[in-house]
C-alpha cells in the first residue's frame, strides 16, 4: 500500500506547476492535457482542452499528483496542508515570501516553541501549505 497526495486546481494547474518548479525546486515528472487524452471528445462540458488532466511532480523527495478539477467543482484546500520542511531560517523565509504573495496567510512566519520558523498559508493557486524549519526541542533560535 502507498499513500499519495493529489491536488486539484481550479483551471490554473499548469501555472501552479511552473511556479513550484521556479520557486520551490519542484521537478515535473509528467503532464498530460485534456486534449492529449485518448478520447478528447469525452471531455466534460466546459473543460479547457489545454487544462491539466493529470500531472506528477517531485518536491522534497515526495511525488505529488495534480490536475485541473471539474469546472465549478474545485474549492481551495480546507483543513489539509502540504507540509514543507526546510533546513534553514533563510529557506523558510524565501519560500514563505514566494508562496504567500497573492495568497492568504493563516499564520505569519514566526518562531515558535517547536520551530525556528513556522507559517501556514494558502497560495494563490488554492493549495494550503505549512512551512516548517523544526527545532530540536530544547534548542535555541538560530
What's a concise summary of this model?
The chain has 2 helices and 8 strands, in the order βαββββαβββ. It has helices at 13-24, 89-100, and strands spanning 5-9, 27-33, 52-59, 62-68, 82-85, 104-110, 115-122, 128-134. The relative contact order is 0.19.
The level 1 CATH classification of the largest domain is Alpha Beta
Q: What's the domain count?
A: 2
The overall pLDDT, averaged over residues, is: 92
Number of helical elements:
2
Q: Encode the helix/strand succession as letters.
A: EHEEEEHEEE
Helical residues, percent = 10-25%
Give the DSSP E fraction (strand runs of 2 or more residues): 35-45%
| Overall shape | elongated
The CATH architecture of the largest domain can be named as 2-Layer Sandwich
Structural class: alpha/beta
- Report the CATH topology name of the largest domain: Signal recognition particle alu RNA binding heterodimer, srp9/1
Which sequence of strands runs across the widest sheet? Answer: 1-4-3-2
The overall strand count is: 8
What can be said about the biggest beta sheet? 4 strands, mixed
Query: Roughly how many Å is the radius of gyration?
Result: 17 Å
Unreliable stretches covering 5 or more consecutive residues: none
